[in-house]
Amino acid sequence: MSNTILIDGMIYSGSILMVYNIIQYYKFIVYTRQRGVNEQDVFFLWTPFFLLVLFLVGYIGIAMFGNPDYLVAGILLGGSIFVFLILRIIRQIAEKIAQNEELKSALHTAEKANAAKTTFLSNMSHDIRTPLNAILGYTHLSKKEDITLGEMKENMKRIEHSGYHLLALINDVLEMSRIESGKMELLETKTDLMKVMKETKDLFANQMGQKNIRFEVTTEIQEKLVYCDRNRIDRILLNLISNAFKFTPEGGEVNVLLKQTGKKDDTASYDLLVRDNGIGMNSAFVEHLFTPFERERTSTVSRIQGTGLGLSITKSIVSLMGGSIDVHTEEGHGTEFLVHLTFRLYENQNEEIKEDTDATIYDFTGTKILLVEDIAVNREIASAILMHLGMAVETAENGLQAVEKLKQSAAGEYQAVLMDIQMPVMDGYEAARAIRALDDPVVKRIPILALTANAFAEDRQKAFEAGMNGHVSKPINPDELADSLACVLEEDN
What we know:
Layout: H1 2-34, H2 39-65, H3 70-142, H4 149-180, E1 189-192, H5 193-210, E2 214-220, E3 225-228, H6 230-246, E4 253-264, E5 267-276, H7 283-286, H8 310-320, E6 324-329, E7 335-345, E8 368-372, H9 376-388, E9 392-396, H10 399-408, E10 416-419, H11 428-436, E11 448-452, H12 457-465, E12 470-473, H13 478-492
Parallel strand pairs: 2-4, 8-9, 8-10, 10-11, 11-12
Antiparallel strand pairs: 1-3, 3-7, 4-5, 5-7, 6-7
């Protein structure tokens, strides 16, 4: 009796282990399918599965209807153990192979990223050195003793142009970084599309004329007032038209068209078309056109400045706006970009949006500013600009010095504080919060204007959260600085 129980136990134990083996083998089949194994190979994997099921049926049949002895029971139990061990070995080998494939894939991705970084750094090295060469070169020429005033002014214009070009390159890199980190956001304001297109035409007309390019900007719209991010729209136009300008030879043609394609409820759809008859692109490169840092490798293109970020940024902005962008191009016959966007309409289409006018002339006589800046050259530049505006300037090299000077100042001695953000000892945010926490009711209310290279929307928000009244980004635009100071001084009064 005890022999029979032992034999049955061995057989049933083998059966249970075989059930476990079947379940594990099924999971292995699922695992291989998830790893991308083709259907033909998966079909062959099912054959052992059905054999294992038949073995299980045989185990149960022998246990229920057979007359097994120790030898048969041992073979059945041993067979289940053998299958169990084999399955474990196969699974471990498969996982090792998968890990190796993942490592190879990761290595390939890292190599591609490294190659892209190398290409990007090479492009940036070239593109940054080009305006730097102009800045340093014209600075050197301006030091000559026999230079005339006219030549000096012309050199200053070229230096300024090169400086703005360098700033645009830096902005491209920062913008791409924000896009990749998901930090780019839209700031919608009331916008007149007709004025956007007019200002775009004015912006490019001069350089198009210098290159003898026929330049036309046309609008075919019924609703001109919309809610959109004006700066992003300008960026789309700037990137697309700049590309058309760069890749269109002298005597060529660039056409820009903004056309309203529909209206539904409180929204309207628009197509923006930018077409040129320049060098065009080959079909192979078009597939990578919107990939960051990609530039077509031809003898013509390689001589043209660019980081390969403009179109990638453009596509990201268009996507963020819920639109689409398409390109039609033929090598040697030009390129056409078509952007489709939908905007919310402004309620009163007959309202006039106030146009920007020439820089306002302010009288800052008698205004004393506390300038907080840790870098000497920045203090010197900002002080010169402020004094040129008629202000008296006192400086501090960090936030703590600024707080101490305000504590010791007489009520109303300073009319405003210009505060850098990234400083040693105490940064601008900490200093602003410390000023707002002072006991003197007059000093604690002093207008504080952030004057910083932290130029993004979240930086502005941080400045306001710290208690500041405004934000001006570096490099300093004197007109913008004057406008901002006038605004916060007026609010204080």
